Amino acid sequence: MGVETEAREELLDLVRSLKERLRVDGESGETLSYLFRENPGAAEPLIPGPTLSTETSAGRRSDLEAVRVELGECRRCSLGSLRHRLVFGEGNPHSEMVFVGEAPGADEDEQGRPFVGRAGQLLTKIIAAMGLKREEVYICNILKCRPPGNRNPQPEEIMACEPFLIRQLEAIHPRVICALGSFAAHTLLKSEAPISTLRGRFHRYQGIPLMPTYHPAYLLRNPGAKKQVWEDVQAIMKALRNGLEV
Ligand code: SF4
């Protein structure tokens, strides 16, 4: 690739990032917040200069919006060209509680929001049973794009997408993470153990207590497992109340 082509590609990346930032800001009602850092005393432009690559600039931005901007209209794995809408995640960026699922399904792919189908409605009920509102927690997935036919995520897809989940969790820095289902638990814990043996006790993800439990989609097929999920979320609630001595 020639120097001119590289410069053009970089400029296009920058424009795409800026457009994405405007879209995210528009959705959050913070139009033009991209012009300034969160610290109002340091009104330094966030937009990288033309000599900075987007990779470099992303390393200097740690907040959730910056992660979304960096992700852009991602095509880092083959799912990028198959999705309708990228599902980044939603909820309170300062939440103490983050739910991490597997990947968007058909409804999520259509709406661009996580957990909005039948399984999502069940998750919303679980959150309500915890005494929380959906908008008080943060919800996201290992993969941001829907695997065709809801097939299992492939290792190369997880490898391509996981860095953004890691950054999301770094940006939010919750007190507790709940991994919903095998793929979330295996990816975050780097374990191959069955979810049935992982669930029911806290593990650690980067020092943060992490409770694996069954995915709501599994509960729809196996309602008998609701009892165990209820035990798991009760343990989370207790840990949140008691300062997380887990
Ligand atoms: S699944 Fe993740 S890595 Fe793959 S295209 Fe979507 S956002 Fe990019």
How is this structure best described in words?
The chain has helices at 3-28, 54-59, 64-71, 106-111, 118-129, 155-172, 182-189, 195-198, 216-221, 226-241, and strands at 90-91, 97-101, 138-141, 176-180, 203-205, 208-213. It is an alpha/beta fold and 246 residues long. A six-stranded mixed β-sheet has the order 1-3-2-4-6-5, sandwiched between helices. It has ten helices and six strands; from the N terminus they run H-H-H-E-E-H-H-E-H-E-H-H-E-E-H-H. The model is unreliable at 24-61 (pLDDT under 50). Helices cover 45% and strands 10% of the residues. The protein binds iron/sulfur cluster. Iron/sulfur cluster binds at residues 71, 74-77, 79-80, 86, 143-145, 157, 160-161. Iron/sulfur cluster (SF4) is lined by residues 71, 74-77, 79-80, 86, 143-145, 157, 160-161.
Q: Summarize this, please?
A:
The protein is of the alpha/beta class.
Can you give keywords for this protein?
246 residues, 10% strand, alpha/beta, 10 helices, binds iron/sulfur cluster, 6-stranded mixed beta sheet
Q: Secondary-structure blueprint of this entry?
A:
Elements: H1 3-28, H2 54-59, H3 64-71, E1 90-91, E2 97-101, H4 106-111, H5 118-129, E3 138-141, H6 155-172, E4 176-180, H7 182-189, H8 195-198, E5 203-205, E6 208-213, H9 216-221, H10 226-241
Parallel strand pairs: 2-3, 2-4, 4-6
Antiparallel strand pairs: 1-3, 5-6
Helix pairs in contact: 1-3, 3-6
This protein binds iron/sulfur cluster.
